[in-house]
Amino acid sequence: MRSALIVGAALLAGCSPDYSAVRDWSSQAREAVLPLQASRVASDPALLPPPPAPVTAEGRAGAVQALNEGIASWLGLLAYLADDGWPRQRENPLTALAEKVQPFDPEGAAALTNLGEIMGYTARRNTRAPYLRTAIQLGDPHLQAAVAALQRQSSALLAEAPQPAIEAPALPRNATPQQRAALQDLVAARRAELDRQRPAEDARRAALERVAAGHAWMAANTSVLSQSEAARLLRAQESELRRLMLLGVAG
User: What is the CA radius of gyration of the chain?
Assistant: First the structure.
């Protein structure tokens, strides 16, 4: 009898949908959303999926950080569900993040609130991998709104930042050749830094667009997420996200 039960369980496991490609894409998308340069406090390894990190920044910078954390938390939940994890956070885990966003982007705050409500709902229902497709469909419009808000607020934050002066002040007429050479080197270094930052910013925007597009594709194709063709497509998207992350770090 015992051996029969073991065989039966093995057969059921073999028939379970394979969402490993969704898990891997969601994990990579989470990493792409979270800036690698930002320091993070290690969370309790027993807390899965990883909870959002506390947002310490204030103002618009805090709103951008909160949107990053909220989107990343949602993607972490998808990866956890795809791996047949059992979420335990029964309340909305994104409430504090939405409050950070509200003064600057009410639509983004509403998107985080809605994503958090779905996350809490999945835990209260004791859902696991079988709920993954429903979660993706329910969450997609809010994920799209959150990414759009992050793009808006990131652009606004960049526009508000003081722009470094490229041209240096004029030297006096009696400046030495060494002083003139040093000034030319300084101007060249400033221009090189700006040239280096622009591709990194473009890569960051492209990565967010890829995350939104990948999530939208999964929401429109939930019936085939466990099939090999979907896995191949998601692996290709995962690879592109890694490439864009490397470009972003280079800046």
Answer: 23
131 vs 234: CA distance, rounded Å: 19
Q: Where are the alpha helices (DSSP H) in the chain?
A: 2-15, 20-33, 59-82, 95-101, 106-124, 132-160, 177-220, 228-250
Cβ atoms within 10 Å of 217's Cβ, excluding its own: 17
23-40-239-200 Cα dihedral, nearest 10 degrees: 150
Query: Using an 8 Å Cβ cutoff, are 104 and 60 in contact?
Result: yes
Give the C-alpha distances (Å, rounded to integers) separating 127 from 19, 101, 220.
15, 29, 21
- Please tell me whether residue 87 adopts helix, strand or coil conformation: coil
Cα(120)–Cα(213) distance, rounded to whole angstroms?
24
pLDDT tens profile 82-134: 999 999 889 999 999 999 999 999 999 999 999 999 999 999 988 889 999 99
Backbone dihedral region for residue 57 (phi beyond 0: left; psi -120 to 50: alpha; all else: beta): beta
If you ran DSSP here, which 8-state letter would residue 94 be given? T
Distance CA 250, CA 7 (A): 51
